[in-house]
Design a protein that fits this description.
It is a single chain. The protein folds into 2 domains: 199 residues, HAD superfamily/HAD-like (Rossmann fold, 3-Layer(aba) Sandwich); 74 residues. It contains 11 helices and 7 strands. It starts with 7 loop residues before the first strand and ends in a 14-residue tail after the last strand. The longest helix has 20 residues. The chain has a 7-stranded parallel beta sheet with strand order 4-3-2-1-5-6-7. By secondary structure, it is an alpha/beta fold. Bound molecules: magnesium ion. The site of magnesium ion (MG) has 7 residues, from loops. The site of magnesium ion has 7 residues, from loops.
């Protein structure tokens, strides 16, 4: 190996390989608008009840959401809410499909790295089901060698992902990428998890590069683990219009929201070693490639 050549790239997924925030915002806000129009329940009431459910299940992408929102259950008058408000479900699905796409140049850069013998490992806090869906939808099944995600949330007893699972179960799994789970409740910036991931693929911290969009989570974690860190600055969403909607309904605690808000714009609090200013492919030189 040439001096400085790295052997493994560990990459965050949401807002590093694809614009999770844009897809989430487009789909969630379209759903909320349709729900308000069709149920008569004001968005502000829906948002408050949704946040309670997101916190209960530890995710902002809860598949059984509509069926558990109290004011929608009332408005639906005995019908399952996801059946009573089909326009909202359709808007959520179509905007999600439309909005979930790789950032420009991601597939090409990953292919260059793989061809040069670099292992591609992904690590996301997002839950297994939607991570699998996005990985397949963006064509990264098999491009990513090993994917680490959180396990799925528990559904209420007797429930399945009924509004989503219209295909045989096998079609929801990855075919080529190996999908492993990190322990439930483990969150970035816990450096132990990154070190355990590297250990599991037989690599040392100095052989790896880690890339992610969050200074507070991704960069802080990589620096503690002494893995070369790269900030995907092009993916930062916190200053986008619409980010306040996410803050209002997120499963994060108020403390988490405030901690992140304090980091936005406070240059120097966590300084990345390398930065991809405009696109993912800027990570290639850090790997010791072109
Ligand atoms: Mg991210």
């Amino acid at each position: 190996m040439a001096q400085g050549r790295k052997l493994v790239l560990v990459t965050d997924l949401d807002n590093t390989l694809w614009d999770w925030f844009a897809a989430w915002h487009a789909s969630f806000s379209a759903m909320l608008q349709a729900l308000e129009e069709d149920s008569g329940v004001p968005q502000s009431v829906l948002e408050g009840e949704i946040r309670t459910l997101h916190r209960k299940y530890g995710t902002t992408e809860y598949s059984n959401l509509l069926s558990e929102i109290p004011s929608l259950i009332s408005a639906a008058a005995g019908v399952e809410p996801w059946r009573a408000f089909p326009r909202a479900v359709a808007a959520l699905r179509s905007e999600r499909r439309r909005g979930t796409a790789l950032y420009p140049g991601v597939l090409e850069a990953l292919t260059v790295a793989k061809s040069a013998g670099v292992s591609i490992v992904a690590y996301t806090e997002s839950l297994a089901y939607w991570t699998t869906w996005r990985t397949k939808h963006t064509g990264l099944d098999g491009v990513i060698d090993v994917l680490y995600s959180a396990p799925d949330h528990d559904l209420p007893r007797g429930k399945r992902f009924e509004e989503m699972r219209s295909q045989p179960d096998a079609s929801y799994d990855l075919n080529k990428t190996e999908h492993r789970h990190v322990p439930r409740g483990v969150l970035k910036p816990n450096a132990e998890v990154l070190l355990a991931i590297l250990n599991s693929v037989g690599r040392e911290p100095h052989e790896a590069v880690y890339i992610g969009d969050s200074l507070m989570k991704d960069i802080a974690m990589a620096q503690v683990a002494q893995v070369t860190d790269v900030h995907a600055r092009y993916g930062e969403a916190q200053q986008h219009a619409g980010y306040d909607l996410l803050r209002r309904v997120t499963h994060w605690t108020d403390e988490d929201v405030e901690r992140e808000r304090a980091h936005v714009g406070s240059i120097g609090l966590i300084r990345p070693t390398h930065t991809c200013e405009h696109e993912f492919a800027e990570v290639l030189p850090v790997l010791g490639l072109a």
